[in-house]
Amino acid sequence: MSGLSRLGLAGFVAFVVLSGVGIVAHLSKVLVIAWVAFAAMAGGAALGGRMNDSMHAKQLVWAFGLASGAMITSAAVFLVPSAISHQAEFGGFGIAFGILAGFSAHTIGHRATHLETALDHTSIELTAHSLAAGAIVGLVYGNMPGLGLLLGLTIVSHKGPAGYVAAHRLRGSGKSVSVLLLPAAGIGIAAISSALLHLPSDPAINGFVFGFAAGVFLHVAMDFLPRCELGGEVYEVAQLSDNAHHLLDELRMHAVASTLLGGAVVFGLWAVISRPM
Question: Which of 92, 74, 270 is nearest to 157 (CA)?
């Protein structure tokens, strides 16, 4: 296995430098979200890099289920109403185009995995995803500083399990897990940069932008739903078991329970935070 990745280290250094810019610009919420995202992916990668091939499928289902359930609920509660309140029709178009753009980028972006680059395919996909998500997080919080941290933290909650799975794959192919420092830092690099941009005070533009953000995050969340089917992330782990078919049937129940619990946790936190003092 190779040593410390230069690209990963460069990404981390860039993130630290931009964090200084964020402090000067008083982007406290963006910085918290960015560093939580970094810690989640780096921590997940550290665990995944040390796991053996008996990585437990139930752990994977619960990690993805809780994250995706929380993301779907947060996007629906905190971003969709904001988009519609700015301008209903443009907000609706933004949501639709955000979902379609997320699907298109994910589908077309797969072609990038066939290019010869210094990064492996997994790291390319994760880095592109982190930069895109970070740009939207920064744009939303930079223009709506009154938003609570709950939205941003649930949006980046999937970084932990994503880093876990990616590190497990890299370790299996004999590659350095430290390259994941780049996508881990990517959300912060893009978020701090985009938070410095300010949208025109036009209801239609704001409605579309916040709707687009909601649509993208809804797509990402649905993409992370723990589907216990052939060829998926869960199946790759479950097939290591001697009773894979029975295990998949059991995991489907865990998938439903974990996603519902993820949504319920967001509801509970929102109820506590929004309760009058």
Answer: 74
Can you tell me the distance from the alpha carbon of 10 to that of 223, in angstroms, rounded to the nearest whole number? 29
Q: Phi first, then psi: give them for residue 39, nearest 5 degrees.
A: -65, -40
**DSSP letter string, 251-276:** HHHHHHHHHHHHHHHHHHHHHHHHS-
How large is the average pLDDT for residues 213-242? Answer: 75
How far apart (Å, rounded) are the C-alpha atoms in residues 148 and 179?
A: 31
pTM: 0.82
Distance of CA 169 to the CA centre of its chain: 18
pLDDT at 52 over 70: no
Contact between residue 41 and residue 212 where contact means Cβ atoms under 8 Å apart: no
Q: Where are the beta strands (DSSP E) in 75-232?
A: none
Instruction: State the chain's maximal CA–CA distance in angstroms.
Output: 59
- Look at residues 190, 173, 136, 162 and name the one whose alpha carbon lies nearest to residue 19: 190
* Alpha carbon distance 39, 25 (integer Å): 22
Q: Which two tokens stand for residue 232?
A: 């998926």
The residue among 75, 103, 104, 80 whose CA lies nearest residue 91 is 80
